[in-house]
Amino acid sequence: MNNTPTLENERVILSPLTLDNYEKLISIASQDKLVQYSPSDIATPASLKNYVEIALEQQKAGTSIPFIIYDRKHNAFAGCTRFMHINTKNKILHIGSTWIGREFQGTGLNTQMKKLMLDYAFTTMNFEKVEFRVDERNLASRKAVEKLGCTLEGILRKDVYLLNGFKRNTCCYGLLREEWQSN
């Protein structure tokens, strides 16, 4: 039923996010303001389950591939991420809905995970472009995608409502396959 691949390297294992394993993320998802720049509600066990159910519905529709993140260095589940807005006709997808616990931030985990996903998207899935959408105020995430070689292609003004009612500006970053291969 689930044809989500498991992606791994020496640092991280990205395996299918399911209703059987999401509970391993409850303690991380409940960290205060963990996803303050995101429109997603994951703070309670019920809201996290709903978040996963939506991701799995998108997966059935062919527009999303959600992963649970396991950090080999810390021998612990760290969060989740997904391929999303999958557009096979135009060979473009987004990497997003990524969150990892504070104890994993700044450890190199996110970079290793993104490199694994980018390589898979460009090499195995044969996509031509990967996009990232980031809240304009989220400087750490913006720097992280820029470090991967992504280009800021524009800013969508007052684009997405967050849980607190604030309407964020969204930075659109893109990375072309030829830019990734020349990295």
Automatic annotation (TrEMBL):
Keywords: Transferase
InterPro entries documented for this protein: Acyl_CoA_acyltransferase, GNAT_dom
Coiled coil: none
A single MF term (Gene Ontology): acyltransferase activity, transferring groups other than amino-acyl groups
Alphabetized PROSITE patterns for the sequence: GNAT
N-acetyltransferase domain: residues covered: 12-169
Gene3D superfamilies: 3.40.630.30
SUPFAM superfamilies for the chain: Acyl-CoA N-acyltransferases (Nat)
Protein name per UniProt: RimJ/RimL family protein N-acetyltransferase
Native source organism of the sequence: Maribacter caenipelagi
